[in-house]
Structure formats: structure tokens, C-alpha cells
Amino acid sequence: MSDSYSYGANRWRRFSDWDDRPLRLDQFAVEDPENGFSAFSGAQDPQPGISIIDGEIASMDGVAAKDFDMIDAFIARHHLDIEVAEEAMAMPSPELARMLVDMNVPRTQLTRLARGMTPAKLAEVVAQLNAMEISFSYSKMRARQTPGNQAHVTNAKDDPLQLSADAAIAVAFGFDEIETTMRVSRNAWSNALACCVGSSVGRAGTLFQCSSEEAEELEIGMAGFTSYAETVSVYGTESAFVDGDDTPWSKTWLAAAYASRGVKMRCTSGAASELLMGFHESKSLLYLEARCLCVQRGMGSQGTQNGGIDGAPLASTMPGGVRELMAENLLAVWLDLECASGNDARHSESEIRVGAKILPLLIAGSDLICSGFGSILKYDNSFNPSSFNGEEMEDFLVLQRDFEADGGLTSVEEATAFSLRKQAIEALAFVHEDLGLSTANETMKQSVAVASGSDDTESYLPRAVAGISEQIKDRGITVVDVIRSLHKGGFVEEAENLLFLVKLRVSGDYLQTSAIVRDRRIISAINDPNSYQGPGTGYRLSEERRQELAAIRDVLDREGVLRAEAIYEPDESRRINYHTIGPAEAGTDPGEVLVALSPGFGGKLFRTLAGHPLSRVLAEIQAGIASENATMRIIRCRHTADTSFLGLTAAKLSGSGIGIGLQAKGTAVIHQKERLPHNNLELFSNAPITTLEHYRGLGRNAAIYATGNMPDPIVVPTHGEALGARFHARVALTYAIETEMTEDGASPEAVEVTFSEDMP
Amino acid sequence: MTRKPLSAADYPLAEKRPDLVRGARGKPLEELTLDALVSGDVTMEDLRITPQALLQQAEIASSVGRNELARNFERASEMARIPQPIIMEIYEILRPGRASDKQAIIAAAKRLRDEFQAEILAAFIEEAADVYDRRGLFAARY
Q1: DSSP structural state of residue A33
Q2: What pLDDT is recorded for position A760?
Q3: pLDDT tens, A715-725?
Q4: Residue A456: pLDDT above 80?
Q5: Span A466-495, mean pLDDT?
Q6: Cα–Cα distance list, A635 to A333, A607, A649, A651, A662 (Å)
Q7: A129 and A137 in contact (C-beta within 8 Å)?
Q8: For chain B, which end, N or C, has fewer CB atoms within 10 Å of the first or last residue's CB respectively?
Q9: Do residues A56 and A48 lie in contact, with contact meaning Cβ atoms separated by under 8 Å?
Q10: Distance CA B65, CA A84 (A)
Q11: How confident is the model at residue B3 (pLDDT cuts 50, 70, 90)?
Q12: Which domains does chain B have, with CATH numbers?
């Protein structure tokens, strides 16, 4: 090899392209079980096992009872069911794994066995399933039949007006639960009151939580502003648990405290929290999460929020990390817990990775598919950006429509959204005024109503919010005061809705597993249990719900296409006149190029897919032909609307043997009389990106072919646009309008075209 | 009063057995109206869950095989009678390193029994004391 030989660079530039993609902002880590970087196989993961002597657990997963750490001790005492343990632990893991994916094995048979299984056993079983099997099993094992979703409602300014407006929006989209938190912790009471008011607009029954410091969160719950909590965090190693400033017993105490105040509660856990906290004990993500989940079941928590949560980004740096997140969701539902299945902290900058991660859960269904879908913009999400945020709301709605999978959300019409925002803002402003908390002026209210995010608002400043929050707390304002105030301000429906929500705590029905409110009724794992047993069973979309999922905005139909075309008709009729002379005849002039128009060209359809007026397109072709001293003659075909046949028909009647086929949508071809229909000279198939310049070049080249010479073919450059995605629905509808106008055996007609002076 | 244990068939209680549902001051659900709230007849106290309601939910949870959830409701039932400051005080001593030895927890258990007849809660925190002792969780952390 010669040293002087130069390629102009020292790498294949594709790698530079890859470097520039969002994916490359993601970090990836090598598998390193010793240092806690293993999804499924930790260096110190124990073998499953149990020994029971005289009705007492003598050892579990290789640890003798006397050596149990506090987590082992809690699991042995509160999770493991001695009656089931020996039977379940004796079953081979591959057999249990097959039962999980066997639609003939009822869910309840498996949840019974799980009560007798140790963390290592549970982890060993689900580790045998591939991603598809995990997803399938999840859809069979999840507790409540009807899927749901949860939103984050926060903003970067803790602005109560915006919280109220955004809470109302989240309710309108169909979220079953909304969760707020603060940028500044002392704003908790203000955030709680604002979201509470906003969530009462439009519909009753959306559960609400305000994630804050434990004692304060409970107090806010007791004041009636919130209806659920999910901040009861659980960890899989003793040291991490202690650094989290709790024990399984203190968390159990807290769980009971929430129930005793009529507040729904679930725990939080998830892969990699121990690794982030520095206490992984060389154990795998899955094994540690299995410990967390056994603790939660033992605590008597009705459910969990897991699937990575804050650790999802770290879990996703590892090989199999995303499969592990799915596996831990499966463990949760196998343990008969409600599962708010993560898809919360955004695990990747790659939209492809995000979309891929949501899909298995979307099609499987989940109690709450996201344990925090950011219903607000990314920068307003005080929890950090979610997998899906305000920006990506419509992507999610379309995924639901694509897969006919219920992710719990429904489209909201623009006008409805705007009026709900205004209503929520007015309601909150009144309550604030009435309770003597603050006065919002018109500028503040209007800026929030139209704002997509807090960067666009001229509303409360942080200091004012802190003052509002302190007053609510210090004056002991409760939800009862808020309901009275709403009523006084004429917000009677909102007052009723809020009272409905607070009344739920009297019976406590919504404390049961997987409870949410739909149509003012509680549904949970008790009265809406997952009954999946194969095709045709379990959750199926009703026709009504299917229509809701289909009803995204701006969908095209035939009438819409015709209406849009009709708008252009008057202008086009001023620019051009098509005069039919009679049957088209074969030409003899070797200097002519014949152009065959499609049936609807200039009659029903008036512009190409690129938006060019058809008059302009014809004028450009004519100018191109003339530039090579040839002449254009025009015919209209009614026997075909196909470009190739249009072109060939023109070529056969052309004195030069060269013809152009031109469809109304702008697709064009240069043809020659002796050729086969689809073996043309030049094809302009990408009408949406074909410019007027290209049409002029088409005319010029056709004229050059007519002289027997060979021009440089016109190339319409693409930049990789997904033209099919952008245009094919309109193409199909437009083209069908043309094919409907065809008539078998109709002869081509000669057309005389005159251009007016209005030509743009 | 004896009655058949509640089960899934009775759920949701507010719909299926409204006769059993009462607020903390004895008001039935149908009296918890907006008008009554606006006139001052209904207060926050009427919108609290009762120990009885939690025991009813415990029965329902047990009937569908969720014994641990039922235990939680039973603990909550005892807690519903305990004032918030005391709940938070005991929560605090259950956190790692707050109590310097098991005596603080034993004393709290006695108080739960003596003042609130909360036998389940008392036994539960005594169990914690034993484990904390064995695992060295009474060491001060700050």
C-alpha cells in the first residue's frame, strides 16, 4: 500500500452520520455482573430454595433464617405463604414459565402459586421468557381487565393557573390518574389545590396525587385534595433501603396510614435504583426487583409503580435491560399487584427506542400503561421528561389507532381543549380570589389559556406561589372549602365532580387492587377482573371505543379531497381554458410532442400533489418543448387514467412518436411509440417533490427525444421523504376520482388549450 | 350484629351495599350532597373513612385471596382511630436509626395497646423492634 494514497478521510463517513443521530446521545454500558451491571444474571444472585421446619421458614434462597437481612425477614414473614411454598418451590421453573404463557392456565392459579415463591424463584421463572412471551403473559396476568393511563401535570414555574388548565386537559384526554410535584417543595399545597380544581373540570373521577415529602403528602391527603399516593419507595437491598431512610416496617406503617385516611396507595420500585444508590450487592436488576415486589405484596400494598421508573435509563444501558423492565412488570402482576408499568422517566433520546419500548405494553394493556405520561411539555415536567410528553401526545394517540390497542387516551378537539382550559383557569382564579389567596388578572389568565408551556405565560412568579401555598397550609384550608367556593362562583358541575371524588374515600372501594373510576363507577380487579383465556376473551375494544381511537384529528376523506380541489377551480378557470375539438387524430409533424391529459385534469382536479396549478404545469411543459423548437399538441384520454398508458397513447398519435402522459396529481412520463407500456423513456413518479422547473425540463427532453437525440434524463432529487406516508391517502382518493371517470373504449379527444393573462 | 362476611358480590360497597356505608359522623352516602356541604351540614369529618369501612374492605380483599391487602386494611382500621401526630411520631421511630434501642418501639407499642386498643399495630411494631435489634438498625445516622 502506498502511504500517499489518500481517501480524503480516515473513516467511512456513515459513522459520522450515525454519530449525529439522537441515539448516540444515549450511553451504553458493558455487562459487568460483579459491579451490578446485569439485567438477569447477577454475580451473587442466589439459587432459589426454601426449607420449612415445623411450620417456620428455616432458610430461603440459600440464606439461613438467623442470617436474614431485614428484607429477607420481612419477605419470609409477610410475603411467603407457608401453605403454598413447598408445592410452588418444588415445581420446575420451565414448567411455571410455560404456565405463564399458557392461555388455558387461569390467572388465579398462577397468583396462588406466586404467594409461595421466593424472589430468586420468581426471577428464575420470568427470566426464561423472551420479550414476546413476557408481553403475552403480561396481558394475561395483569389484574384489572380495562387498561388505563396516568399523567404528570407539572410546570417549571409551579404556576397554579397553568396547573389547573393542564389538569383539565389531562382529564379530557382520559387519564385515570394525574400526578403533580413541585420545583420548590414548599409549593406543595398550592400545586395540590390547583390540580385538584383543574381535575374537576369536564368529568368526575380522575384520581389525583401530589408527590411530596411523606408527612406533608399525608396531610395534603387528609385535607382531601389528593386521592392517591405512589411515593412509598421500596428497595431490594438492605443498605439501599436504609439510605432511603426507611425499612419494610416503616413503609408498611405508611401504607396503612394512607389507607386509614381513605387514600389509595401504591409502592414504587424498579430496576437499578439500588445500583444508582451504590448498594447492588453484585445482584441482577431482576432479582433485586423480585425482592422489592415480594416486600410490597407482604406490606399489603394493592399495587406498584415499577418497570425502571427513575432507574429505567440506567437499566436501558445494559444488554437486555429493556426486556428486564418488561419482566419486572410481569413479576408485579404475577404477584397480583396493580401495575403502573413505568414508561415514565425517558430511557432514551431515540424516538425509535421510545416507540419500541411502549409497544409491548400498549398491545398487552396495563392497569396504568405509563406511571407518568408527561401531559405537559418536556421542560415543564418537574419529574424529568417522560417517555411520552405533551410533544408526543398525538404520536401515542396514533399508536393506539394503528394497533387498535387501548392505551387509555382519547383525542380532544381543539375547540374543546381551549374552552376546558379557560373554564379551569376561571374556576381556579375564582377559588383563589374567594378564599383570599390571590388575584389573577386578565393577562395572567389569557396567557395561560393559550400557552403550550410555561415559557409562554405571564402568570404567577415563584414567590407569589410560595405565599399561596403557605396560606393554604397555615389556614387549614380543605377540599370542603374549595367545593363551597366553586359552588359559590357558579362552578356547580366542578363542585359536584370534586365532591364525588372525595366521597369515594367514605366507602374505601377504591382502595382495592387496581381501582380507577370510569363513568362515575369504580372498576377494579374485583369487579373488572382480567379474564383473558385466549382469542375473543379478556379486554376487547367495543365498537364505540374503536371509533374513539380512530377519531384522531385531520383525517382525509373523498369529500374533503373534492372540497379542497373545488377551492382552486375558480382561479384555474380564469387562467386556462380547455376546449375539446373532436376525436384526436394521428399527427404527421415530426416536430410535435403530444401531451395526453388524464380524465379529471383541469375538470375535477386542479393542482398537482406538490400544489402547482395544472395550468402552470402545462405552460412549463409547453415552454420546455418550445425551447427545442418543437410544438405541443394536447389530447385528453378517457379510456385510461394510468400514466404509462396515457404516455403511450400520446406517443402513438404523435407525429414524432414521442408523447407525454400527465396525470392531474402531477405524475408524468415521456413515452415512445414502439415501447412496451411500462418501459418508458423517463418517469416522474414523485409528484409531491416535482417542481415547475422539472416540468419544463420534461418538455425540453421530450422535444430532444423527438429529434432522435438523447438528453440528460431529468432527476427529481429526493431527500428520503416518506412520500407514501405524506401523500398516499390523497393519491389514492385523487386517483380514484380519475379512474371513476374512465370509460372503456373511449377515444382520445383533441383539446385546444388557451392560457389567459392571469397566469401566475 | 352478625352478618355473612362480605365478598366480591358486595363490591363496590357504595353501589351494592350503601346500607353499610357511613361517614365518620354516621351520615349515609345519600346525605353527603352538595347542598348539605354548602349549608355546612357536611364537613370534612363526614368525608373520612371509618374503621368499620376498612374492616369491610378487608373482608372483601380476603374473599378474593388477597390476605396481605386485608392485613393492611386491618392495620389501617386501627389507625383510623389514631390522631395524625401520633401516627407520624411512630412512623418516625420506625425509620432506621431514629430510636437508639428497641425500648422506644416497645413503649410505642404499649401506648398503641393502652390508648387505642390497637393490638395488631402494636404486635407489628414489636416485630420490627426484634429485626432492627438483630440487624443493628438502631444506630444513629445523623
Answers
A1: G
A2: 55
A3: 999 999 999 99
A4: yes
A5: 98
A6: 69, 18, 9, 11, 10
A7: yes
A8: N
A9: no
A10: 13
A11: confident
A12: 1-81 (no CATH), 82-142 (1.10.1510.20)
Report residue A186 as a C-alpha cell: 414548599
Q: Residue B64 and residue A299: Cβ atoms within 8 Å? A: no
- Which residue in the set B50, B60, B132 is minimally distant from A526, CB to CB? B60
The answer, yes or no, to whether residue A308 has pLDDT greater than 90, is no
Residue pair A344/A389 in contact by the 8 Å Cβ criterion: no
Alpha helix positions (H), A278-413? 285-299, 312-315, 321-334, 351-364, 393-403
Percentage of chain B with pLDDT > 90? 94
**Three-class DSSP labels, A238-304:** HHHHHHCCCCHHHHHHHHHHHHHCCCEEEEECCCCHHHHCCCCCCCCHHHHHHHHHHHHHHHCCCEE
Using a pLDDT cut of 90, give the percent of chain A over it.
96
Q: Check if A244 contacts B (Cβ < 8 Å).
A: no
User: How many angstroms away from the CA of B79 is the closest CA of chain A?
Assistant: 6
CA distances from B9 to A101, A218, A554, B16, B60 (A): 29, 31, 45, 8, 9
Are the C-beta atoms of A293 and A334 separated by less than 8 Å? no
Task: Give the count of beta carbons closer than 10 Å to the beta carbon of residue A569.
Answer: 14
Q: What is the dihedral of CA A111, A267, A303, A379, to 10 degrees?
A: -130
- B5 CA to chain A: closest CA distance, Å? 16
Tell me phi and psi for residue A209, to 5 degrees.
-135, 150
Distance, in Å, from the CA atom of A340 to the CA atom of B11, rounded to the nearest integer, reads 23
Q: With the CA atoms of A436, A437, A442 and A448 taken in that order, what torsion angle do they form, in degrees rounded to the nearest 10?
A: -150
Q: Which of B24, B23, B34 shows the shortest CA–CA distance to A499?
A: B34
Which one from A59, A150, A454, A598 is the annotated catalytic residue?
A150
Closest to A390 measured CA to CA, from A153, A694, A104, A689: A153
State how far Cα A622 lies from the chain centre.
49
Q: Is the pLDDT of residue A443 over 90?
A: yes
pLDDT of A1 above 60: no
Q: Tell me how far apart the alpha carbons of residues A225 and A475 are, in angstroms, rounded to a whole number.
A: 15
Q: Which residue of A has its CA nearest to B10?
A: A527
Check pLDDT > 60 for residue A446. Answer: yes
When pLDDT is averaged across residues A395-417 and rounded to a whole number, the result is 98
Grid coordinates given for A269: 420500585
The predicted pLDDT at position A4 comes to 62
* β-bridge pairing A264-268 and A303-305: parallel
pTM of the model: 0.95
Long-range contacts of A441-449 (CB under 8 A, 24+ apart): A444/A161, A445/A161, A448/A159, A448/A161, A448/A162, A448/A165, A448/A421, A449/A165, A449/A418, A449/A421, A449/A422, A449/A425
Q: Which one-letter DSSP state was computed for residue A337?
A: -
Whether the per-residue pLDDT at A243 is higher than 90: the answer is: yes
Which residues 245-264 of A have a C-beta within 8 angstroms of B? 245-247, 249-250, 252-262
Mean pLDDT value across chain A: 96
C-alpha cell at A378: 418536556
Answer for the pair A157, A462: CB distance below 8 angstroms, yes or no: yes
Reply yes or no on whether the pLDDT at A484 is more than 90.
yes
Identify the three-state secondary structure at position A210: strand
Catalytic site includes residue A150: yes
Share above pLDDT 70 across residues of chain A, in percent, rounded to a whole number: 99
Among the listed residues A72, A230, A392, A620, the single catalytic one is A230
Mean pLDDT of chain B: 96
